[in-house]
Design a protein that fits this description.
Largest sheet: 6 strands, antiparallel
Helix content: 10-25%
CATH class: Alpha Beta
Distance between the termini: 24 Å
Strand content: 35-45%
CATH superfamily: Hotdog Thioesterase
Low-confidence stretches: none
Number of helices: 2
Strand order of the largest sheet: 1-2-6-7-8-5
């Protein structure tokens, strides 16, 4: 497997610079592991992410999945902040625990214009997935 195009620290610096409104110290998103086309990210548990019924909201899980895919795209192609989501499909499998969410993204195909991947979201310290996501990113021409 090739080395990642960017390290976790480099991706974090890029996100802080390009998206300071969304990725900043204390935002709750953390990049834990980066390999070429494979990443692990975390969304810290916070009550503001709960929906009625006391479960973590779907939009919170979708945000985490999209973030994981964005980081995975950078890990494979390098700094391309204008890469955008063109499709995201999520299946909610079970109620997440009142804990951090962990997303593991894996790119299945990276072409010149599109990157396709999947994301598995789990509650921290639990094996059973709470959501399965497939997503496609459009890669801008260089």
């Amino acid at each position: 497997m090739p080395a990642p195009a960017m390290s976790a620290d480099e991706i974090g610096e890029l996100l802080t610079r390009e998206f300071p409104q969304a990725f900043y110290p204390g935002c709750g998103l953390t990049i834990e592991k980066v390999a070429h086309g494979e990443v692990r990210v975390r969304r810290a548990y916070h009550e503001e992410h709960l929906r009625p019924g006391g479960t973590i909201s779907g939009p919170t899980m979708m945000e985490l999945a999209d973030f994981a895919m964005y980081v995975a795209v950078f890990s494979a192609i390098g700094p391309q902040p204008l890469a955008v989501t063109t499709n995201l499909n999520i299946n909610f499998l079970r109620r997440p625990a009142a804990a951090d969410l962990i997303a593991e993204a894996r790119l299945m195909k990276v072409g010149k214009r599109l990157a396709v991947g999947e994301v598995i979201i789990r509650s921290d310290r639990q094996d059973a997935p709470v959501a399965h996501v497939t997503s496609t990113y459009s890669i801008p021409q260089k």
